Amino acid sequence: MELEHLQDVAADDQVAAHTNPVTLEEVISTDATFDEVLSALYEEPFYFLGGRNRLTGILTRADLNTSPAMIHLFDRITLLEERFRELILDEAPHWKERVPLDPNVVEDIEERHADARRSNIELDEIHYAQFSTLATIISNIEACWDACGFSSDHRASSQLDDLTELRNSVAHSQLIIQHTGEGLGKGRTIGKVEQTYTTLTDCLDAL
To answer: Global pTM?
Structure first.
């Protein structure tokens, strides 16, 4: 029902006369998986939440900026970060010699590693690299990006850049969805989030 139409109805009209029944196409299950939610919200900006033969609420694209979505993404990205480190240790243990990293980045890693060694809790140096550095290493070494399921170093670099941006938003409690409208808009859209989440899940499945 359009709001413009409601402005012209009589004050004593029955609400039922100006409403439409909710259809199954407008309902999403409360048990839907995260990727099912993303796919649905890509098609339509909002849905009614349904479960046990009743409606329980409304789901919109903006709900992807709430704690449940943040917690889920943080869990998945953290798991992928651990697998990236394991992959690099297996396929590229001499990554510092093979990848042209910013000297300041390498120095920061070495300093963190040295601090841990002094505290007698050291791990391999790769465990002190940030996610963005892991992404750079993987996109530069064929054995790594191939193991993740990417078809080329360029595709790996582009998609992991998007994933790094999403990871940083999650880590700093910033907006996941930055633009809730259709088409081209300023900021991260539902389409971009769906694509990036696909990259995340594909990498996890491959590793």
So the answer is: 0.85
